[in-house]
Amino acid sequence: MSCGISKAEFLETEAPRLEKWLNLNHHGKMAYMENNFDKRLDPTLLVEDSKSVVSLLLNYYPSEFQNQESFKISKYAYGIDYHDVIKGKLRELIHSIQTNIGAVSGRAFVDSAPVLDKAWAAKSGLGWIGKNSNLLTKKVGSFYFIAELIIDLELEYDSPTTDHCGACTACIDSCPTNAIVAPYVVDGSKCISYFTIELKENIPTEFKGMFNDWAFGCDVCQDVCPWNKFSKPHSEPLFNPNPDVLAMSKKDWIEITEETFKVVFKNSPIKRTKFEGIKRNIDFLY
Fold first, then answer.
1. Rounded (10°) CA dihedral 128, 130, 133, 137
2. pLDDT tens digits along 103-112
3. Looking at residue 35, what is its pLDDT?
4. pLDDT for 63
5. CB 53, CB 43: distance < 8 Å
């Protein structure tokens, strides 16, 4: 796990970027992105009396991968739902802070509140925002989860690092649906992850044949990133791949029943799409 700390204050440079992104409808049908605009940019509105944003990275890069002749799922979904795993770790961290320092109050966030986690991680020196809009690091690439503690404790703050994407356009050139519409700008409404996870209605037919067998999420812009040559397998047993998932063939995915889905994906992020969502995605692929 990596840790960086920033002063809890208004994200001035992010405000116009977020406003423009929303105005261009790059969030598609993700209406929740329009909510709590001020809170997304100012943690002191989210957590009263907050002084520091502690950003944390937790690697999820696996040591084993799916059967090549299968419909593909994002690597982050190989194991147990990260929300459950990371929330437990954050509770332990807050307890440790309170035990060692005293009365410290705040809140923990794991991808479930209006917090611009990548912006805070970059501000805290944990990496830089790449051309694919993911947080990149020189040492371990980009296959990790980001979480935050927003607390009422003043700390020493870290400084941002520099951008090391250079002239590389591997992610832009490789995106199957051309969702990276400009360096550092992703049109979420064209992203395979959006279509297969966030979108609740039918996938637009104009994208038929573009998904390269991705049934849940998409890792293409990370897989092609040169910095991910430095990815190392994680050491969190709860993120270890479910062997049943890795072994599934295309036939298994096509023939999956609701009963089997509920058993195999009981503690998985994939349950977020529900059985109907996965069936819709698979039907779209063949």
1. -50
2. 888 999 998 7
3. 85
4. 94
5. yes
Cβ atoms of residues 222 and 74 within 8 Å: no
DSSP state, residue 151:
E
DSSP string, 82-115: HHHHHHHHHHHHHHHHHHHH----EEEESSSSS-
Asked if residue 266 lies in contact with residue 189, where contact means CB atoms within 8 angstroms, the answer is no
Closest among 157, 76, 155, 146 to 116, alpha carbons compared: 146
Which residue type sits at 260? T
Determine the pLDDT at residue 30: 87
Residue found by looking up tokens 């209605």 in the block: 201
What's the token pair of residue 76? 């982050």
Which two tokens mark 267? 């503690």
Q: What is the pLDDT of residues 164-190, one digit of tens each?
A: 999 999 999 999 999 999 999 999 999
Catalytic pick among 38, 49, 84, 111: 111
| Distant-in-sequence, close-in-space partners of 202: CB < 8 Å, separation ≥ 6 | 280
Q: Is 111 a catalytic residue?
A: yes
For the chain, residues with pLDDT lower than 50 are: none
